[in-house]
Amino acid sequence: MKVCGVIALAAVVCGTAAAQNTTAPPQLPEQDRALSRQIFKEFIETNSQDSDGSVTAVSLLARKELLKAGFAPEDLILAGPNDRKQNLVVRYRGASGSKLKPVLIICHEDVVEARRADWSTDPYTFVEKDGFFYGRGTQDMKDADADVVVSFIRLKHEGYVPNRDIILALTADEEGGKSNGVSWLLKNRPELMQAAFVINPDGEGPTLQGGKATELLVEATEKTYADYRITATNPGGHSSEPRPDNAIYELMHALLKLEATPFPVELNNVSRSELEQMGKVSSPETAATIQGILKTPPDPQAIADFSKIPEGNATLRTTCVATMLQGGRAPNALPAVASANVNCRILPGHSQEETRKTLVSIFDNPKLTVEYMADDGTISPTAPSRESLPPPPLRADVMDPLKQVTAQMWPGIVIIPSMEIGASDSVYTNMAGLPSYGIGGAAIDDNGNRMHGRDERLGVESYYNSVEFFYLYLKALTK
Fold it and tell me: Can you tell me the distance from the alpha carbon of 288 to that of 290, in angstroms, rounded to the nearest whole number?
């Protein structure tokens, strides 16, 4: 689930960078355009949401196309914990005798739940309308799944031999569920995932301002995801005799305290660099605010102004917010139990248990319990105490090819390392000691982000440009 940081702030970037970006990206050849559309359509129209879909079905579609392109069956490995959650690991063989470790690309095939009643079109019908492709996963992230599969096919047809193996892992349950594919493969089939570094296309693509690509984020670190169950209990009673300590009141008071108690501001080397770079291409007003944040000590007013913008606030600190509420047994009885799910996105360098203890301190109410809920729904009185890893270095063998290709695709674009304020599967690869970088190719207008929402869509030309971007980038990475 990709959510960019400060770069997503509306009206931040002025026209300077966009004015340099005047050349149209290279055109995708017509036969590859048709193949790209076909595969994208097949992926979108295959329901892979956790409740009633199948990741395996998407993996099998990809495997079928790769077999047709000439990949050997032994290089197309299906592996997973059950029939619906079969990941596909593809190995594109490099030069014989190469001593270079492979490049690993991770792409999740699952999507966020979508209901037909919420959409103006069927979320699992691929619709082209008004210059956009509509359907669940068009932005997050079946576009990238198709990008890389099509790139592998194009390279295979050309007879291209990379200087090292390229591994593609198409995986389950990044968006939810009990069978995260990257985690499962690292634990159960680690030999399939060994690599020098990881490219995760779940990162942001270029941001468009007025139709021009202005900046490309490289996600060089990310926050840690954690859910906590906050529970209030009391004896309950008859609703004709209200009590100030009924469970819902206790819970609501706690959540109001959480809202009024922001976590402290903390910049790391990536978020500080991100702000520094944005200050150079921002409007004078925004640049002045950023300079105030970067002062030692920071300007309190600049912090306050930046924190009013949700993306800005999330860049500066750990955030925790109530996302689900449950309480009461009958309309005429005081609730004896009420609970809330509080979702936190934790800055690098802090643990889930440290954050749980901070919540306990904020609530300061012994009548409440604060428990950790793991990805599989298991509830525990404590959370993992392992701190998230510091950001990996920006490798020249990742960044130099990226600069080369972006200069070809979008001249004048600014490349900015950033901190992912959401979460992605890079958390698992980074923890496994594989330096991971979020790099996407689909350009999205600064107010056009519909991932996880109704009527998710991606511009038609943005999609085809992203196919060309990954084809060129994979080549540049493995020359």
Answer: 5
